[in-house]
Amino acid sequence: MAFVLYGIYMIVKSLIFYRVDSKNIKIGIFKTYTYNEVKSIELHSSVPSKFMFFTIYEKGLTIHLKNNKKIYLKEAYYTNFWKLRLHLDNTFGNKQIKISKPVTNSTIAITNKTTSIPFYITLVKIIILIALTSSIILLLDLFITNYLDPGYFIFSTGTFLFLLLFTTQMGYIESSKNYIIIKNLINPFVKKIIPTNDITHTTKETVGGGRNKRTFITIHTVYHKKFKVTIDFISQKREKNIVKQFKKLAIPYKDYT
Q1: pLDDT computed for residue 30 by the predictor
Q2: I need a labelling partner for 191 at 20 to 30 A (CA). Which of 36, 92, 108, 247 fits?
Q3: Is residue 39 within 8 Å of residue 63, measured between CB atoms?
Q4: What is the mean pLDDT of residues 126-135?
């Protein structure tokens, strides 16, 4: 029972929100620190975190206060953590970094293309389309005639959602002189366009272990936002092509795997 309560406590503790405004740093509901209390900030640091009786280190940022205390903010599970880093960097780093305006022109002249999409990806697309179509038809059947077993609908919908979730971050990279374009392997309409002037460096990292092991190429930007591309399901030839593009554009690349 004690372990269950401790687990609940750790989950609730990990869900604490962070918020910054023009004058204060707010952590959770009760803790507020003014900027006058801050001595310095490490925008990228290893943050200690308690797990049972062990101390593990995660990515985050460290705020050093004038009274020699430290505030640790964990990056994990916060998709907009980069905005917090950007605000603190502009406040204490005096860099006044700005986010580039979104590129709306989809007709960028791509000069560095990758190899053609493999056949099995086309097969996955077809399965997703069939699963989606079947789910719609079976849902209509449930409401109109209820002739077919509801299990078919559950299986079809489950297949669609699983494949959609599984392939969300599967992508590849193409580029032009001034832009990096991240494209989705499954959905050709999903793309992210990043100006090369915004990119500080790129990395290859492995997260997790065993069956949960995932390998990413991460694009790091000057305003601290990260763009991740899963490369577990692309060929070595395509991966080498991506790295070649980075080198051609003089973008630093580091392999941490």
Answers
A1: 77
A2: 247
A3: no
A4: 89
Distance CA 244, CA 138 (A): 47
Task: Give the CA distances from residue 222 to residues 79, 96, 155, 172, 227, in Å, rounded to whole numbers and listed in that order.
Answer: 17, 11, 44, 21, 12
Quick one: CA dihedral 20, 48, 89, 206, positive or negative?
negative
Q: What is the mean pLDDT of residues 78-90?
A: 86
The CATH architecture annotation of domain 171-255 reads Roll (2.30)
The pLDDT value given to residue 2: 60
* Residue, of 23 and 65, whose pLDDT is higher: 65
Mean pLDDT for the stretch of residues 64-81: 86
Helix (H, G, I), strand (E, B) or coil at 65: strand
Pairing of strands 199-207, 191-195: unpaired
b/e code 140-151 from CB counts within 10 Å (16+ = b):
ebeeeeeeeeee
Q: Which residues of 54-92 are buried (b: 16+ CB within 10 A; e: fewer)?
A: eeeeeebbbbeeeeeeebbbbbeeeeebbebbbbbbebe
Q: Which residue has the tokens 């940022």?
A: 61
Taking the C-alpha atoms of residue 100 and residue 257, their distance in angstroms, rounded to an integer, is 31
Q: What residues does each domain of the chain span?
A: 2-93, 119-167, 171-255
Distance CA 32, CA 16 (A): 13
The secondary structure of 172-200 as a DSSP string is: EEEE-SSEEEEEESS-TT-EEEEEGGGEE
State phi, psi for 187 to the nearest 5 degrees.
-105, 105
CA 238 vs CA 3, 171, 193, 241, 248: distances in Å: 47, 11, 19, 5, 15
Q: Do residues 130 and 152 touch, judged by C-beta distance below 8 A?
A: no
